[in-house]
């Protein structure tokens, strides 16, 4: 190590212009170059030192020591590591690699926008071309996070505008994106190509107009399930007539009208358009004419697919779809009169993804349609498909990998005949099934055990029994045995959501067997602190834990405080936590942010409350940025 | 449940006497109320069994169970499908206005979530608020509940609750003709059927329009 100190003096000298050609010409870089590349000594360089010295003595015949590789070579090598985890591992090898990796990283995913400050992220990774930032906790999707919580995209956009002028892709999920953000994006990045907004809010079609007008190289505009204020229908018109680079256009979540003539011209001239997802404002016959203009589409979302049956419209649709030889993914909010479904038959064979989760169509025509989709890999449906429909799916779609069944009427009187049977059938007959999201009204341990035996290859298993704390409807026991079978059998399980009547025992099983588990969602389950303790002391790879309405208290939280720093975040609402424990946790773990949520409107400062005050919602996450400064009244950082 | 139902009826009868009126003084409201939805309280989201003729009365009891916030865990985007799905079976899908002329600048938009009598979501904007909200008009029995719900929703944006002066606000709505109307002039039922979106106006535009409370 001491020897290396001499070398660090030359750190600041920039690489001489002939360094790269020399390296390229002869990979056996002369040992003399080694001194320039070494940063402050790290453990690996110390280990590599003997190699370096040996190389120096042996001369050019030896392979170059790894620590002497020029940055450009390292960066090129790292470009073959697209996965962020691999790049992170490479960066941890030594300071040389750390520098090369961070300077060359092109894609950055920030899973929690408060885990790091935007400026720090931009400074650390100056060459990023594609960034993804996620904001609010997952349970915000279900209304558990009041408005104005935070997760504003503006600081990220501002930092990116400053530090990443070559940014090409930006993706925000569960964040507040304003029109100003969109305007800044449009004016700051001259080669901006991809904008993806998922479950965001705070912007309007005026912001979209800024994007369509300003981003001359836009390839993808992907708006998924956002709340967009409708200012005018003209945002589409701002695409210049010369603009032809669009490959993806998804405005399915937009509620207002769009200028159809403009849309049609846009679709006509963008010959690379692969994905087109329309909103509810586009009626069926317009869909047909769009398809005729864009037969090269790979993905189509039809919007509201409802119309009275007219045979000429049917013929039009059938002809239009017949021309779409490349169509692989289909979605839409189909209130379809089932008589139209046969118009799609010609594309069924080619479909790999079918999203009917907003479609209220039901009955034999639906089932017949799905049964023709022999190559389906991904199926999202409503429970209107019912057990017998899923039995048909099981028999027809042998390549199915992902199944999601959503509830059509969760508060209804159980008129939908979807039970555990459907899931058992699919698990038995679809050997590649690995991801399931299933809402149903009843379940048995036997069914779950069968499913677990059928499908040890599950990576994602999310079961939601609609009524909280529902037991096995046959034996009236808890569903501990069933879910235990799942975690014991599915060794590669990464995501799990449990429901129904569950005791602490199931968590013992999960803690012991969930060795790949990264995300766990628990609601209305468990008896005591033990349940939480099992989870936090087990589940070695757990990243996200979200819990609601469980009798888990302070002790397991404090006993496993260190675990929380190995996780991305923990959400606990309506449990048995008190303020004192949260204070202790915050004190013990300075690199965690401990956030408490009260009812909005009740802005009692947390400092004045006693230790035994109950905590309604706790949200804890690790961060290197310190406590955030944009909390609303009802959020207090302990 | 019987107690809850009787509460609803009693309240409906007294509604006129106790109702907060947003219209200008002297304007008389007709007494015609829509048949009260079977929700025991405003703000509860559930299928309105009273509207659906084919649904058995036993759809009413689950209302009590359905009041857990955020359960089942489905995105609010999906919730608007629920009522549509449950009421779809007997009713034909609403036929949208199919625009024949290709020159038509704007395609007609069928009402998004207002189909088939399940719910009536309209957007509510408030001047100065960073984003809008949506409310289901069918959740409210009258103007007073609607006003209370709006106040609860938008309190955060007007600063300290105590300093909110009702006459600084006017709740307006855009009707079918596209005109901006003051909320409260017409019977609640008529308002529900003509309201396309709502806007809470603040400041000088609103002063003098909002009537004094009680």
TrEMBL record, chain A:
Cited SUPFAM superfamilies: F-box domain, RNI-like
InterPro entries attached to this UniProt entry: COI1_F-box, F-box-like_dom_sf, LRR_dom_sf, Transp_inhibit
GO CC terms, sorted: nucleus; SCF ubiquitin ligase complex
Keywords, sorted A to Z: Auxin signaling pathway, Nucleus, Ubl conjugation pathway
Subcellular location: Nucleus
Matches recorded under Gene3D superfamilies: 1.20.1280.50, Ribonuclease Inhibitor (3.80.10.10)
Domain COI1 F-box: 68-106
Chief location of this protein within or outside the cell: nucleus
Region described as Disordered: 1-67
Low complexity: bias regions: 9-51
Domain Transport inhibitor response: 126-172
Pathway given in the UniProt record: Protein modification; protein ubiquitination
Biological process annotations from GO: auxin-activated signaling pathway; SCF-dependent proteasomal ubiquitin-dependent protein catabolic process
Entry keyword Protein biosynthesis: no
PANTHER family in the cross-refs: F-BOX/TPR REPEAT PROTEIN POF3, PROTEIN TRANSPORT INHIBITOR RESPONSE 1
Description of how the protein assembles with itself and partners: Part of a SCF (SKP1-cullin-F-box) protein ligase complex. May interact with auxin and auxin-responsive proteins.
The name this protein goes by in its record: F-box domain-containing protein
Organism: Aegilops tauschii subsp. strangulata (Goatgrass)
Automatic annotation (TrEMBL), chain B:
KW Aminoacyl-tRNA synthetase (keyword) present: no
Location within or outside the cell: Nucleus
Superkingdom of source: Eukaryota
Domain PB1: 119-203
UniProt entry keywords in alphabetical sequence: Auxin signaling pathway, Nucleus, Repressor, Transcription, Transcription regulation
Cell membrane is among the record's keywords: no
Main location: nucleus
Biased composition (Basic and acidic residues): 48-57
SUPFAM superfamilies hit by this protein: CAD & PB1 domains (SSF54277)
GO BP term, pick one: auxin-activated signaling pathway
Gene Ontology annotations for the cellular component aspect, listed alphabetically: nucleus
InterPro entries the record matches: AUX/IAA_dom, AUX_IAA, PB1-like
Regions crossing the membrane: none
UniProt-annotated stretches for the region Disordered: 23-65
Subunit and interaction comment: Homodimers and heterodimers.
Family membership noted in the UniProt record: Belongs to the Aux/IAA family.
Free-text function comment from the UniProt entry: Aux/IAA proteins are short-lived transcriptional factors that function as repressors of early auxin response genes at low auxin concentrations.
Protein name per UniProt: Auxin-responsive protein
Organism name: Aegilops tauschii subsp. strangulata
